[in-house]
Each structure stands twice: as structure tokens, then as C-alpha cells.
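Listing S7. Sequence submitted for prediction.
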Amino acid sequence: MKVRACKYIFISVLFVRVLFAANLSVTVDVQYFSGFNSFGDFYEADGGHKLARSASGKLHAVFVNKNGNNNQLIHAYSADGLNFTTTVLTENNGASAGLYNPALAVFGEDVYVVYVDNKSSADRKLSIIKYTADGSTPQSAVVTLNNNNPFYYTDIALDKDGYIYVAATFSTSYKVKIFRSNTPQDITSFIEETCSGGDFNTARAFLPKLATDDGNGRVYLAYELRNAPGADTSKYIAIHTRMKMGSYGVWYPAEKVSPNFRAQHPDIVAHDGKLHLVYSEQPDSSADDCNLRYRIYDTDLEIQSDEIIHSAKRIYSPCLSFAGDTPLIQYVDSADGATHQIKQTAKNMDGTWIAPQILSNTPNAVYVHTVANVTNDLPDVLWYNTIDQKVYFSAKTDTPDMVAPVNGSVIINGGESLTKNPTLQLALSASDAASGVASVNISETGAPAATWLDYKENIGYVYALTNTPNGDRTIYVWFRDKAGNISTAVSATITLDTAAPPGSVTINNGAAYASTINVSLAIQASDTTSGVASMNISNTGTQGAWLDYQP
């Protein structure tokens, strides 16, 4: 099978460096990826965060490999996004053994991994490990959060103070449980938190996702709920917020997101003081096409905006990330529930959404995972292929650039506020970390002109005004990158004044003769555009020194 625009990262030998290249063969396949609890009949979603980036830019991923009765929890690490090293964090063996549904988070350079460790039917634990930056040396031994209780669908996050939060579905009651560390960055002691003194939910809860807000200290939890176990049952999404109350925190009851029939596969990101949610929905029945829906909430979970971005036969595993303030969404688009494409869309500066572009045309690509904070305009995306059983990662050079240039500016005549010359000198600048700025468009009307000019850094642009009456003149500039994304307009204003002030002078109150060489002058002038600034007085016909204007 030919694969384009993707690279894969797994090899079973410990600490073997793999150079990314398309169609690179792997000696051992990766089976299961998340464990047997993959969600849905067609690998719809697997829950939890499985890709993260450290403070220094290092990438970390976690997934499961199962070969017969041998189960391995695999950590993949890359310092440059191109070369990955893999490590077996832990493994167990046995006919009834398993390792399921891992998730990871990074705080600074430390890596935290939560997973379900099923050594036997009588020994099943929700466990957590803390590792060094490259994942090679455990900082702490495996800690059991809840012994001999069946869990699956996990997630993990750390707040701005380093407190650890773990979410997991308790499979006996299908309730989501939350555990919080008693000490920042310490995995040895946890307490189970409740929602306003009770359970978080009463229905069947799946696919919990956590998000933390470094600005206000809040923690958010989203998950999907089924009222019954059937595949065609209605579903909705529940969202909780945890607010700090002094040294304590309180989880508030859920706000529910519910279409007429089904809302599923939530992903949440706390950004710019708001909570952003993306999910898949079917409005009325399981036969309906799916909508990709994007919502923004304030800190009190009041809806600020609600958009349907795209519709397709099936939409699975949507993931949300941000390049600056530009939201990007990656998701699995499936025409028949079995054949998959990974697609990506982003929001234009004008508020519209870019038509989805294919990130991977691999027919069996599933389980999309991204890093919420995008660097260099290009998202990091991880996924799994169910046919060739390999884990893939989108290298920066292969990811579509869907973010317009930013930091645009225009300076007219070096920043002057007035000019008498309708030919202007413009200094233009913008940045685009992904594909680079390619061209500029200069206009006086607020709408782009017909002609785009090549963009060159540190080169002045000469622009002749076509609208030349005296007054304020505003120049609008758009920047376009090499991928075709166009920025919002930036502008600057200068006052054009091409007319001299009309004036008059009266000598000695209009007398025809003077008896001395010293005379009294009454000078008047006006200029409605820029005002009269100075005057020049001479009795020879040749200009002398300029003086401040005094009427």
C-alpha cells in the first residue's frame, strides 16, 4: 500500500533510531494501538491524549503493542520531529493479560503515563508512571491508583501548578472517576474527587478528555454518554469544570451537549480564557450524515459560539489544536464506516473555514491524536493504520499549511503622519512559519486589488495614490503565503495635503506710507487639511528664515 505525506515511528527493538521516510518497512507490526477497548465497530475513537510536546519542543507518544500473549506499553520520543526512539515502558504476559488505553501528559520535560495494567482477570490496575524527558529512565516506580478495579478509557493532564489529574471510565458502573495528586508532580499519592459531592454521571460514560487552563487555573472534563449499551442508542456529551476555592477545588455538575439523536467523540482545549469543544454529531438517527461541530464556551460554560464546520457520511476522532489564535481540526472522514481518510481544516482570518484537505489518504487510518499547541503553523498529528498495523506521524514538511501569515504591518513614509507627495514609500512585513510569505496586495479601498506583488523582506514598496484629493488616505495590505492562505488586512493612514495655504498680509493697518523702517504686519492664513505651520517674511523677494506661524 502506498502512503504519502506520512511517516511512521514504531519499531520494537529498544532505542533504535528510525529515520522517517515514506513506505519505510517495519520489522514488527503494532497491534491494537490502544488495547482491545477501541471504541465502535470501525475503530471510531480510542480516547485520551497519546501525543504531547515538552517545554523544549520534544515530542512524546504512547501506545500499546500486543503480540500473542505478550503486551507492551510503548513510549516513542523525538527531539526533532523526524527521528524517533522507542522504549518499552512495561510489559506483561499471559492469556488473560493485557495493557489498555494509555494516555500521557508532559509537564516541563517530565512525562506522565496512565494506563490500565491487566496482569490477569484477578489483577487489573489503573496505573501511572513518571519518566524522564526521553522516557528512558523512570523517575518513579509504577503507582497503582485503584487496585483490582476494572477501568478503561483513560486520560491525564497537569494544571499550571503541577497537580496531576487522571480521568478513567470505571467499567463496572460505567462511571467516570477523577483522581488528583495530593502533591504537585508527585505520582505517589492521589485522592478521588467527586462532582458536587456525588458521581460525575449516572449513564454509560466513555472517552473522557481533560483540559487545563493556565490562566484561570480551571480544569475541564468532557466525555460521551450513552443511555443504553446498543450501538444505535442516543448519545450526548457532558462537560464539567473544576474551579479553585482557596486551597480546594469544586467540580460542578455537567453541562450537556445533545442533538436530537447523537453527539460523540469530544475533544476539548482551554485557550484564550475559553473552553473550545469539537465533536461529531448525527442529528436524528444513525443513518444521518455526521456533522463536525465546534463550540466555544466561557469559563461558566455558557455558549459563546456554535458552528457546523463540515458534514460527511461518518466523522470520527476529531482533534482540536491552535496555531496562535487560529483553530485547526483534524479528524477521520469515513465514507462507508470502514474506509478512512484523515482530513484537516482551519479557520480563516475572516471567520470562514477552509475546505477540508486530506492529510493522509491511507484507507485504514484511525485514532487521530494531536498536540493542542501548534508550532510553526504546522500541527503534529499521530495516527494508526489497522491494515499494515503501523503508527504514523505527520512530518512537518508533509503537513498542509492552513494558517495565514501573521504579524503583518505596514508603515507609510517611515511613520510620518503628513505628506504632500501622493507617491508613498511603504515598509511591509509579515511572518509565516510554515510555507513562508509569498506575495502582498496593496489597496486604497478596503478590498484587495487585482494584482498581487512578490513579497520581499526589507525592501521598500513605492505606491502611487490613485485617490489624490487632500485628506486622510488609508492603505490596506494583505499577505499571502506559499500555500495560498491570505491574512486579514493591516492598514495605516497618512494625511495627503497638496495645496498651499492661502494667506494675506496687511502693513500698518493698510496705510499706504510709512515714516520708519519698522512696520506692523497683520498676517492671516488658513489650511483646512493639515493646518498652517510656519511663515516666511522677506522684503527682497527671496525667502528668509522660517518662523512659527502667528496669526
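Caption to Listing S7: primary sequence and predicted C-alpha cells for the chain studied. The mean pLDDT is 83. The chain has no helices and 43 strands.
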